[in-house]
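Input record (one chain):
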Amino acid sequence: MTRTSACLTLLVLLLLQACSAAPRFARWELPANVGFADLPDRVLVQPLEESQTTGIVFYPGGLVSPAAYIPLLARLASQGYRVVIARMPLDLAVLDSAKALQLMPDYPYVQHWVLAGHSLGGAMAVEAVKKHPERFAGLILLAAYPAENTDISDLSLPVLSIAASEDGLSTPAEVSAGRQRLPQQTQYVQLSGANHAQFGDYGPQANDGKASLSRDLQQALTASAISDFLKEQKLFQALSF
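The corresponding structure, as predicted from the sequence alone:
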């Protein structure tokens, strides 16, 4: 098999695991202290006043618009975190796994960057961290795990992995199997009654499990787990102007 055909095969496999869904909403209500900007290469979700010294770059799931993650990430922005949702070529993070490195320099006042991603976006976030571990202060995976040929278990980087008990795409068994390729200190959270699609806001997804939690509650629990993780890692400090 040639290198080109191998790459095409990998892309097809990743597409089969992609979220392949579109945002199902036109508008949403943001916390009063949060604003957003829809830019050509990113969606910026940010606090309107003083922010933290930590910023988050987020990679969307495969074929999902960045806008689908605004309801979840606005919960973190309301706590002072500046969140940059990367807009990927064709909505596929696999086509630009290093996108975070292009976005972060635009915010020189952010002292620590955490890379996060959902599903395929999470897998590609792992790839970015593997190649540039010195650029990130943490890694957050939502319904995601490293590809079989990607191992970052030797890194000292803080990692949080959040899985869903009813996930039919990144199943609990698959997330568990990926543990050996993540650092030993990785923190794991499994949300009982949650599913794959409700980490975003793009509606039901083929082959996903049925959630017993509401989308709002699943995202509230997700944001709470992320907030606790960031505080525990000392990544919660006010930015002084």
